[in-house]
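Batch 3, record 17
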Amino acid sequence: MKSYRKELWFNTSSRREFLNITTEVQRCIEESKIKEGLCLVNAMHITASVFINDDESGLHQDFEVWLEGLAPEKPYSRYKHNGYEDNGDAHLKRQVMGREVVCAITQGKLDFGPWEQIFYGEFDGKRRKRVLVKIIGE
Amino acid sequence: MKSYRKELWFNTSSRREFLNITTEVQRCIEESKIKEGLCLVNAMHITASVFINDDESGLHQDFEVWLEGLAPEKPYSRYKHNGYEDNGDAHLKRQVMGREVVCAITQGKLDFGPWEQIFYGEFDGKRRKRVLVKIIGE
Amino acid sequence: MKSYRKELWFNTSSRREFLNITTEVQRCIEESKIKEGLCLVNAMHITASVFINDDESGLHQDFEVWLEGLAPEKPYSRYKHNGYEDNGDAHLKRQVMGREVVCAITQGKLDFGPWEQIFYGEFDGKRRKRVLVKIIGE
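Prediction for the assembled complex:
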């Protein structure tokens, strides 16, 4: 069994943003030389997500509006977590969108349906944050 | 290390439906001859889910009502994604229910609690769609 | 490839509770002697979650209020699942928070960001329930 590990770093210019990281993850799989296995991709921060959905800007605007409806950013006073911070909403949004994805690797490639794309979902950005890629297989 | 891959195909007669796929997944594990490992089961489409919960029809009606409350199908105009499509709600519902499950395999079987059952959750059906089963182990 | 399996048992004194189980999971990894691999941690019950977020009591109170808003416990009559039971809300809350986490193991340790902690999320407690830890790797 082989294993591979890499950190991907991001620094978004706005508080909330969705970045397509599919190409970076595929590059990790190629570097790993693993042909058959599983690839874990997870946010290393608890106010960010890694998820799989469509790379369509209308949908991303829908996600933004929908998540703001489910867990509004403001007023900051609505969250007990915000005694010392202002990111209580980001911890909740990340639960809806998820921390991680596990992807199949088949013949050295992401084994994906035609529209699957991997996103880094930032909910408390404007600073350097990390995603972990861990691959095991053969 | 061994690996195994199979696609399961579904075509639901209604837009939204929950199908119990536990038996099909267990059959994959038997075919794989893997006794100890991990089994990834994921929707290959971004308007469908794979999740684990109870096989109880009252609960499935509760899921339907609850998800319609969180991300209503109509009016279609409420989603920017629906410029060319009418399935914006399905992309959101799938985020709540999740894309995938990772299951332990122990002694050649799904290592489950007494009530755990695997479901395919369709949110934009009436067409052929796929689930991927990928198993690694020994 | 090595594999390892362990059940962790919990019995919360209230219906809903969040327990930090990071130390127990790290202990499993040490017992497994696996240095590089993947660690699945999942609730074996369908009214409980395993998730990763912050160990901060204000945030946990925010989770409680937020989940009660999304899927209220009462009136019990609001859920069809509650014909024979009173835990319909717990099945929904667990979907928001998730069934499982998959964690990377690197150099024999949980490969985590600085604030990541693993929680058992109980939504229908006051009885003995289980979490499964399954590790594969080398």
